[in-house]
Amino acid sequence: MRRIAIAVAAPTLTFSLTACGALGDSGSSADASPTKGNDVKVGLLLPETANTRYDKFDAPIIRSKVAELTKKQGVVDYANAGASASKQADQMQRMIDEKVDVILLDAVDSHAIAAQVKKAKDAGIPVIAYDRLAEGPIDAYISFDNELVGEVQGRSLLEALGSGVDSSDKIVMMNGSPTDPNAKQFKQGALNQLNGKVTIAKSYDTKDWKPENAQANMAQAISEIGKNNIAGVYSANDGLAGGIIKALKAAGVSKLPPVTGQDAELDAVQRILTGEQYMSVYKSYPTEAENAAEMAIAKVQGKDIQFDALTRDKVANATQKGIPAQLVPVVALTKGNIQDTVVADGIYKVSEICTAPYKSACAAAKLK
Q: 322: burial class by Cβ within 10 Å (0-12, 13-18, 19+)?
């Protein structure tokens, strides 16, 4: 994967990638010989429901974009695996048997699904890895620069700890699921920032990304380290952050240490407003989902110029090198830029964020 430039804008940390897709591309695929008309059937396989983004954002955005690109003739066959790798394999096999035209795959287990990816390839069905880089002969990949996400989280945690941060300060790392390749990249990116600057007193890989597992792990960490000896918590996403904060409160921690997150879930945005959570990583799901839909339709319609322009990066998985890819920008979401990110992008309305318990926090943050 090529290295991506980082831009920092005070007072909050904002990190962006260089343009990866075709947003500024003037190439035309009008001369392409389409292999399929507008009657496209897109198979969409998403991994779990613990993270609310998949059902709330990804699936409906992809469905809407496919309809737009195909003059409402294209359809999306959506299945969610509920964190079960075997269920996802069955779902993918059904889509292969039903001869969908292209599959967007967000793998529960990137290694376990490789055999199904090979079956799809043998059946002539292109597979685009969505959000997580699956193994096997995939045709393209779209996600965020996951190591950069971890760097954003790690750097933000250090910012929260302040200029007096010391290498003896103890933090807890609550990483994502060990079956998710993204989690390993988030972890590595965070370690790039944290190693040598703080002491990682406890580190956990959280099974299935479940908040209740993070809560149990955090309770154990508090017991072993001491509730007053934890300077900060690296949390790989917002769901885990919620479990971590519950454990801290249950232990009687009155002044919560800074806790990171990812995904800009509504609960997390509200926790950021009240100071319970320090930050999240906002990833533009509309950009990722819409561009994934464009990639899928361009691929099956033979619009090679458009497809190539959308996939100018290259990545490698455990079985394949030089995979065409698009990496989408990320932003550190803090109290100071909620208005300019999730509100401006239409992810949430102010009325959704500023419910009765959060009115005063919204007013203090000048959120309107």
A: exposed
Residues 210-238: pLDDT tens digits?
999 999 999 999 999 999 999 999 999 99
Lowest mean pLDDT among 34-43, 252-261, 309-318: 34-43
**Residue 127 in tokens:** 């597979």
Say whether pTM exceeds 0.85: no
> Which residues, 6+ apart, have CB-to-CB distance to 159 below 8 Å?
13
Going by C-alpha positions, the residue among 129, 181, 148 that lies closest to residue 8 is 148
Q: What is the pLDDT of residue 35?
A: 67
Q: How many CA atoms lie within 13 A of 303 on its CB side?
A: 20
β-strands 330-333, 280-283: how paired? antiparallel
The secondary structure of the chain, three-state, reads CCCCCCCCCCCCCCCCCCCCCCCCCCCCCCCCCCCCCCCCEEEEEECCCCCCHHHHHHHHHHHHHHHHHCCCCCEEEEEECCCCHHHHHHHHHHHHHCCCCEEEECCCCCCCCHHHHHHHHHCCCCEEEECCCCCCCCCEEEEECHHHHHHHHHHHHHHHHCCCCCCCCEEEEEECCCCCHHHHHHHHHHHHHHECCEEEEEEEECHHHCHHHHHHHHHHHHHHHCCCCCCEEEECCHHHHHHHHHHHHHCCCCCCCCECCCCCCHHHHHHHHHCCCCCEEEECHHHHHHHHHHHHHHHHCCCHHHHHHHCCEEECCCCCCCEEEEEECEEEECHHHCHHHHHCCCCCCHHHHCCHHHHHHHHHCCCC
